[in-house]
From TrEMBL:
Keywords: Cytoplasm, Methyltransferase, S-adenosyl-L-methionine, Transferase. Belongs to the methyltransferase superfamily. Tam family. Its main location: cytoplasm. One of its GO terms (cellular component) is cytoplasm. Residues 36-124 form the Methyltransferase domain. Its EC number is 2.1.1.144. This is Trans-aconitate 2-methyltransferase. One of its GO terms (biological process) is methylation. It catalyses: trans-aconitate + S-adenosyl-L-methionine = (E)-3-(methoxycarbonyl)pent-2-enedioate + S-adenosyl-L-homocysteine. The lineage of its organism: Bacteria, Pseudomonadati, Pseudomonadota, Alphaproteobacteria, Rhodospirillales. The keyword Oxidoreductase does not apply. InterPro entries: Methyltransf_25, SAM-dependent_MTases_sf, Trans-aconitate_MeTrfase, Trans_acon_MeTrfase_C.
Length: 251
């Protein structure tokens, strides 16, 4: 299991927050009684859900004890549960399952997503945002350095929009699916490499056990990323980043 560092992840907290806010704005619920944030991380987005619906029971679920430790410290009044999403079973059906930048880490979406939909009450909502940037240099550079057949190479975990529609539409009153490419304006020395170190690169670095090999890999990766995402004349670096969104209103 990757060891998630909340401080590294939150280095670009505002940029990572925007897709969650865009997803939140599309949820057609007025007064849900219970809601769950799957893959809640350090709890920043979960706290926004609590702010949006202060009278609801809000539950944050994550498998990382470090992330949950920070969530508990910074955001009281929310139930924080450490568990594996793939085996999670709620004690009762809920009105909203929200997941921001988490479910792409899990496989078998054809089984997982209908299962999550089944955990909702009638009229409940499944709202999901996942990165869909896996063909970009941020991820391709990992394959180039490690070799395409290396077991630590990232795959392409997000399926085609048509697949999610076919899996979920029969049980939905309404199903909205869209994609957005954000262009993040970053500052610093090789900031895109720092961005991926907080997310996509984390499992790779954790998986390379030899310290020397890890250092060689990271140096080679950072060099490729600096070439793929060069700074502009003003010193800023642009990172285009595509994301997948889905809001399902259950029948």
């Amino acid at each position: 299991m990757a060891q998630w560092n909340p401080h590294t992840y939150l280095k670009f907290g505002q940029e990572r927050l925007r897709p969650a806010l865009d997803l939140l704005a599309q949820i057609p619920l007025e007064q849900p009684q219970t809601l769950v944030d799957l893959g809640c991380g350090p709890g920043n987005v979960t706290a926004l859900l609590k702010q949006q619906w202060p009278n609801a029971r809000v539950i944050g679920i994550d498998s990382s004890p470090d992330m949950l430790s920070q969530a508990r410290e910074n955001h009281p009044g929310i139930d924080w549960i450490e568990t594996d999403i793939t085996t999670w079973q709620p004690d009762q059906k809920t009105d909203l399952i929200f997941s921001n930048a988490c479910l792409h880490w899990l496989g078998n979406h054809d089984i997982l997503f209908p299962k999550l939909l089944n955990h909702l009450n009638e009229g409940g909502v499944l709202a999901v945002q996942m990165p869909n940037n896996f063909a970009a240099p941020t991820h391709q550079a990992i394959r180039d350095v490690l070799g395409a057949d290396h077991p630590l190479c990232p795959g392409y975990p997000v399926s085609d929009c048509r697949d999610y529609y076919q899996w979920l539409a029969p049980e939905c009153e309404r199903l909205d699916i869209w994609e957005t490419t954000y262009t993040h304006v970053l500052s610093g020395d090789n900031p895109v490499a720092d961005w991926t170190k907080g997310a996509a690169l984390r499992p790779v670095l954790d998986g390379i056990k030899d310290k020397g090999e890890k250092q060689v890999f990271e140096q080679a990766y950072r060099k490729r990323i600096s070439q793929a995402y060069p700074p502009l004349a003003n010193g800023r670096t642009l990172l285009p980043f595509k994301r997948f969104f889905m809001v399902c209103l259950k029948k």
